[in-house]
Amino acid sequence: MALDLITATALILALGYLQGFNTRLRRQRPMLAEWGTGIVAGAMCIIGMFMPIELAGGVIFDARTVVLSLAGFFGGVWVGLIAGVMAAAYRLYLGGAGASVGVLVIIAAVLMGLGYRSLSHGRGWAITPLHLLVFGVAVQLVSIALFTLLPEVILRQIFPQVAVLYVLVLSPATVLLGLILRGHEDREHTNAALAASEAQLRAITAASPDTSLVIDEDGFIHDAVTPSPDPWPGGVESLRSRRLHRAFPDEVATAFEAGIAQALRSGEPSLFEYALDTSDGRRTFEAHARIIDAPLQGRRAVLIVARDITRRLHIAEELRVAAKAFETQHGLLVTDVHKRILRVNQAFTRVTGYPAEEVIGQPTSLLSSGRHDGNFFRQMWEQLRLYGGWEGEILNRHRDGNLYPARLTISVVTNESGAVTHYVGSLQDLTQTKQAEAEIHSLTLFDQLTSLPNRRQFTERLHITLSRHREEPFHGALIFIDLDDFKNINDLFNHQTGDLLLQQVAQRLRNLLEPEHLAARFGADEFIVLLENLPADAFDAQALAERTGHALLECFRRPFFLEQQYRQVSASIGITVFGGGQQLIDELLLQADLAMHQAKRCGKGRLHFFDPAMQQQVTTRLQLEDDIRQGIRRQEFTLYYQPQVDGQGRVSGAEALVRWPREHGVVPPGEFIPIAEAAGLMPALGKQILRQVCQQLAAWRSDPILGALRISVNVRAPRSSPDFETSRA
Q1: Which of 96, 318, 425, 581 is buried most deeply by CB count within 10 Å?
Q2: Which residue, among 122, 138, 1, has the nearest Cα to 66 in the 3D structure?
Q3: Mean pLDDT highest for which of 207-221, 438-452, 510-524, 649-663?
């Protein structure tokens, strides 16, 4: 009987190897695998019952308890249920006195397997041979206990034979079958874990933007995984199962070989770069070579991970350019959204005096001068919000406490969603610019010798004054001052002395005049004063202007200290009063100038107001000057001859007198000759008169009567006209 039981046990062990084939089905169809396992276990029970050990009529023994208990333990509910149902059905089919007890043994074995499964999984028990032995002994003892339900006659006959054999044979069989099934299960778990790990690794590698290559020490490419889209010209298939020099250009293959050799030699990861023409153009790659611990087909191998660094190199280049551009002549600062300084350049330190370590992390209010009100900054930030930038002049405080003007440009930096992340400010110190502007302003509007306003500034101020006087009932006055005999100062001494005199005159004007009055240097030795806001009454305005003029004369009567001695210098002053109307600037200046010249003609050191008759005389004189020019061009001047007689009453010659006949009568020489002399027209007039005299004398010689006479013609002209000569015939 023992041999029969061992044979049944061997058949049961074969179940374990058969189950090994069935477990492969779990990878594709887990439910079908469970049903298959249950059917296999039930079938093995039935086969065991084909070859039973029959100890008494209707009482059979086999190894079904081992199969069913382990089916429930390793397979679970469905496996145990299917196997148990199949075994119980067949046992009932066989019938006999022990059929009911046999079914109970089947049910007990399945339930004990499921119970042991629940306990081991819930408490994390490991499946060890000892645990399996204890479990097997427990199952067999329960089975033996159920045998006591058999009739006493049969029980007394079989119990001594079965009890010891069950425990000694089937308990070790439980251990062996359990270990076989655990081995299958562990192998299945290992394979599943390897498959999952490989799938995960493949997914990670495929999702990576890097290219992974497995290359052995002979340069044979065992595997290659490239990102999508594939950057390699021939695709990933052109890399697998090829050697380096067939898959890559020679210079790239040589770089790979050097990197592989270094990694194999040192055992440490190596790093190298290479450039390759890809479907996206010329790209640069950075490759990391790491040795693989296990040999690959008997050869040492490395894993190479190559990353496209073309964009990184471009970004690095852009950063280098940006860093160079950041160090400009203008102070630059970068702040966060809360206006705290993150970075500054060297020019910022030069402009503000603050080194970087003192301002990093500080608010921009550190630079505030306190001279701008809240409205200024509200408008600034509102413009930044609306337009993303702001530019303007601002007054900042230097580290030493001094204020300085600066031009500030602020730009807003946003992220992809449009949220503000940073502010970039450009700061330019305008101190020198303002100084240059002030100097240009001074050169443009002020006389450099006397520091008084010059002609341009005076003219602009007079224009503003005239515009205001058209609307307001006030008067103004121009006082034209000319130093008498200033040329003598320059000639007798030197120009430095003349300059010193002009400076002292300017200082006296500043000291005498009120702040609202404007004194300017108008020419070499000419000064002009503008009096504004004089009374609306013309008489009162003229009286106030006269008092000011006399005060100026009195001021000039005081000696000037020149060349270590006092010199007396007088001035002639002309005044014109204006108010309302549409006076022109040039007209007023001419009136003041005419009045000044009239003062000079009256004896110098005097004051004279402009008289409209004076301007009429000037206008008439200028018109007559133009008429003289046209008369010379048209040859309107004629000669009248006046006989000259001697003491005896005889005619001795003739005097040629120039006359200018016009529509309204003959203009006598006393009127046009002084004007022609002042205008420089006498040379042209003299030549024309002499030409007429010569022509007349030539005509007289041809006359039969006058030709026999000796005629003397005298042409009289002022001494200042050397072109007039005396002609005699």
Answers
A1: 425
A2: 138
A3: 510-524
Residue type for position 253: A
Segment 394-402 shows an average pLDDT of 90
How far apart (Å, rounded) are the C-alpha atoms in residues 468 and 461?
Answer: 11
pLDDT average, residue stretch 473-500: 86
Tell me which DSSP letter residue 364 carries. Answer: G
Residue 20 to residue 177: CA distance in whole angstroms? 12
DSSP E strands, 443-581: 475-483, 518-521, 526-534, 560-562, 565-567, 571-578
DSSP string for 192-220? HHHHHHHHHHHHHHHHSSSEEEEEETTSB
pLDDT band at 552 (very low <50, low <70, confident <90, very high): very high
CA distance 501 to 492: 13
The three-state (H, E, C) secondary structure of 455-472, written as one string: HHHHHHHHHHHHHHHCCC
Asked whether 478 and 463 are in contact (CB, 8 A), the reply is no
CATH number of 2-191: 1.10.1760
In angstroms, how far is CA 544 from the centroid of its own chain?
A: 63
Orientation angle between helical segments 152-165 and 129-147, nearest 10 degrees: 170
The mean pLDDT of 440-454, rounded to a whole number, is 86
> Where are the alpha helices (H) located in 400-494, listed in sequence order?
431-445, 455-469, 486-492
Q: In CATH, what number does 327-434 get?
A: 3.30.450.20
Q: What is the DSSP letter of 447?
A: -
Mean predicted lDDT score pLDDT of the chain: 79
Is the fold of 208-315 the same as that of 327-434? yes
pLDDT at 127 over 80: no
What superfamily in CATH does domain 624-728 come from?
EAL domain (3.20.20.450)
Q: Check: CB of residue 412 under 8 Å from CB of residue 384.
A: yes
Are residues 237 and 334 in contact, defined by beta-carbon separation less than 8 angstroms? no
The reported pLDDT for the residue numbered 502 is 92
CATH 3.30.70.270 corresponds to the domain 468-610: yes
* CA-based R_g, the chain, Å: 64
For residue 473 the two structure tokens come to 């009932």
Strands 221-225 and 211-216: antiparallel
- Cβ atoms of 210 and 283 within 8 Å: the answer is no
| β-bridge pairing 341-344 and 331-336 | antiparallel
Q: Are 637 and 659 in contact (CB under 8 A)?
A: yes
Residue 416 or residue 717, greater confidence: 416
Backbone region of residue 219 per phi and psi (left: phi > 0; alpha: psi in -120 to 50; beta: other values): left
Annotated domain spans of the chain:
2-191, 208-315, 327-434, 468-610, 624-728
Q: How far is CA 394 from CA 10, 369, 384, in A?
A: 101, 9, 16
Q: Which residue has the tokens 């790239």?
A: 252
Highest mean pLDDT among 326-330, 396-400, 612-616, 629-633: 396-400
In words, the CATH class of domain 208-315 is: alpha beta
pLDDT greater at residue 229 or residue 242 = 242
